[in-house]
Structures are given as C-alpha cells and as structure tokens.
Design brief:
There is one protein chain. This protein starts with a strand and ends in a 6-residue tail after the last helix. The protein is globular. The protein has 3 helices and 7 strands. Helices cover 23% and strands 29% of the residues. The strands form 3 sheets. The chain has a 3-stranded mixed β-sheet with strand order 5-6-7, with helices on both faces. It has one domain: GMP Synthetase, Chain A, domain 3 (2-Layer Sandwich), CATH 3.30.300.30. A hairpin with a 2-residue loop joins strand 3 and strand 4. By secondary structure, the protein is of the alpha+beta class.
Amino acid sequence: MAVKTPDGFYRITGRIKDMIIRGGENIYPREIENFIYNMPEVEAVEVVGVPSKKYGEQVGAFIKLKADQELTEETVQEFCRGKIARYKIPQFIFFVNEFPMTASGKIQKYKLRDLSLKLLEEKGIEVV
C-alpha cells in the first residue's frame, strides 16, 4: 500500500493484506502503530484486524512494553482519544512479551490475528 504525498512522491504505508476494513473505513495499521509507539512505555506495537460481526473487523493492538513499565488498555485508548480518528482507536489491546517471528526475523501478523481470537475467547468475548 502507498499514499501519494502533496509533493507528488509515494510513501509506502504497509501491505495491502494488512489493511483493516472497519465498517467500510480503510485503516492502515502502520499509522496507528507509529502513533502508539510515541508512548514512552511502549517498546514495540503491532496492529491487526480482529474479526467483528458488526464492523467486519475491529482494530486490535499488540503492545510490548519497555522493561519495568506498566500500562492499561484504558490508558492506551485515552492516549489515542481526540488525537486520531475515533474509528482508528484500538478496540482490543493485548500486552505481550514477544511477537511471533519468522526465521528471518519478521513479525507474523497472521499469528497475532489468531492469538487475538484466542485471548478474546479466554476473556469470554465473542467476536465472530
């Protein structure tokens, strides 16, 4: 995926299959990742689409915290509120110690999607 900048150049924003479509709105995970990454407690963040009966997909964020840092789901959502579009604010936030990686060191987002369903099921939240 790419967007055209005002000066006529194209900027790569991510892979088309990673784009989240929430109720007809196209959401670019990289944009949300870059925003949440600005929180001082956050070491790394990955955003994925979580299946939703109502919207098709909801925004889910997997966050790895820096050592000795604490953060809550509500704090992350409050950080986003009023600064990014409401529909881009992660509905589901998961704190992880590590991300599933390929042998070449790339994050496996499809495994994060699967993990989101498992974690929500454990919390008793039905999304599909």
